[in-house]
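User: Batch of two.

Assistant: Item 1 of 2:
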Amino acid sequence: MLSATLGLTQFGVNQVTLEPRFASSQRHWHVVEDEFVIILAGEVVLVTDAGETVLHAGMCAGFPAGRADGHRLINRSDSQAVYLEVGTRAADEEVLYSDIDMRARKEDGRFVYTRKSGEPYE
């Protein structure tokens, strides 16, 4: 995490390299934290409830906290894509996954993953 390396505590910054044919995550949205991405190299496909949008180097996207519109990035190209991911560092957070039965809650600084109902995975 770049923010930890630089001693930043108010927001998190990750430099992510997304390999060809890989996705950043499952589609998700944050209850508490804003999230922002800027593409540094290559291209990715942003997938949201509205559909798909190709993002090239220099383009960015933002995801306001509490907006129930899951998002993820997919690298459908034959080259690596590199982007910065920036987000708030809230003490408490909940992440909901749009397409699968999963949610994550930050407890004591760590995420605990459960079903959307709160039941643990067995």
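Item 2 of 2:
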Amino acid sequence: MPIIGMAIDVIAPSLPAISSGLSVSSMTAKNIIAIFLLGYALGNFFTGFLTDAKGRQKLIRINLLGFVIVSVIPIIFQNINALLLCRLLQGFTIGATSVLLRAILTDILPPEKLTSMGTLIGAMWGIGPVFGPVIGGYLQFYFGWTAGFYFLAIMGLIGFISTWFIVPETHFNRHPLELAIIKKNIAEVIHHRMFMAVTLLMGITYSLMIVFSTAGPFLIQKTLHYSPVFFGHVALILGIVFVVSTFICRRLLKKFLMENLLLVSIHLFLAITILSVIAGFYFSENIYLAVIASALMFFACGSIYPMSMGKGLSFFRHISGTATAIMYLINILLTSLISFIVSLITVHNNVTLMLMYFILMLCAAIVYWSVARNQ
């Protein structure tokens, strides 16, 4: 799980260096994140169908080995086209691994455990965003931008060896890989309104973190003139906030209904973004505002995203691979689109960053009031 988050966050501190080192625009450098997310979505989608037909174990091994191989591409070929190809394939292989791991959890856990387990999955996944930026910041500072790809290749190799010896096959009720069955399963999933609502909430709230990963390095390093190491330390704080929020959410789910927690979370953080926008006009280049507001958005993601994921996974145990594939296709395509839009925007100060957070939380509230509140 940690490598899934690290695949984005180890590279984030190097975006300004990649921009200058490969003589490309900051917009092109930011697209390194967007294209990774595109590959991630595609890997989730296609592997979801394959795993229902072929099982889990072999596919995990193949994709982790593929991740190791593609991670060395930009080390050998140091140009922007090779880098973008690498990120697309990294996203595909790690996305495939992600859907397989979640499908295994669906295989072995009863429905009532999946919603609360979603917060634990989020915490495990969040280890990557906690340590990834710090590691990436130091690697960038001492060794340059290619060091991050060496690190990812090594992590992928460790993951490959671990899963080879530890992860068993868990899926034995396999469905034939037939177009008619695939179409039937897709139709069943996409016509479930609550499933689609929580999937959109996942994409929107995850984008709160991606906004920081995409725009944050340039705001902190270029506009506010801090080092990659400092950015890594900021991201470490935000990652810790994310992990803590998942554990707090898990404890609250034992005392309160998920529907009530979701209602309070969405509206509380929407109000916070409104206050953040107002504060941005008064403290437009204040690092403390950027960090505090971003920390609150990471807390929002750590609260809303796991609840939404756990709820969504509980609907389709009989076709969990297909449901997970569609969930993450929509989720990550939405996040990739938002990341691409953010790459087109030059973030000169806190106002722009706060407005991005506000728009995303407003969209989350609209989704909630349109669908989720009626379920």
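DSSP finds 15 helices and no strands in the chain.
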